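#structure-requests
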Amino acid sequence: MMAEEQEPTAANAQTGVPAGPAAAEVVAPASPAAPADVPVDAPAAEPAALSAPVATLPPPASGIFLGTGRRKTSIARVRLIRPGTGKIMVNGKRLDERFPRLLLLEHIREPLKVTRLENAVDIDISVQGGGVSGQAGALRHGIARALLAFSPDLRKSLRRAGCLTRDPRAKERRKCGLKKARKAEQYSKR
C-alpha cells in the first residue's frame, strides 16, 4: 500500500500523478519538432480557431436567393444574386432610373447598408401595383427577406433596423353614406 501512495516526484509534480506503476503509463509530451513523414506545409488542426468569435459578415455563399416584399398594394419579387457587383435592376431598368427621388433610393438601399453588402450582391426585382412610395417600401421589404434567405445570421441587424417588419398601413376602405373612408357631406342645419 505504501508504494502506491508515494509522494509525487519532481518530474510529475505538476500533474499530480504518483510515482509508481501508474507513472509508467503517463505519456511524455511530443517534441516540438515535426515528424519526418508529415509534410511541412500540411495544415495542422488548430483547436483555438474553433473557439474564435463568429464573424459579423455572412459566409461567402453563392447562388440565387428569393424574397417577396409587400407595401400598400405593391408586391416586389426579389432575386438576390451572389456573387455580384452591387447592380440593382427593377423591371429591366436601373434603380436610379425607376426611382429618381433620393429619399426613396436611400429607403430601398437601407437593408444593404445595414448588412454592409452594397457591393457584394446583384439584385433583380419585379415589382407591380401601387405607386412610387408603395413600390419603394415593397422593394425594401423584399430585399431584407432575400438577405435573410441568404444568411439567417443577418436577422438581428435587419430586425433592429426595422427592415423585416411589413408596414401594415394601407388605404382605408370607403364606407356607404360617406364620400370617402371618413369624409362626409357638409352638414347643413336647415
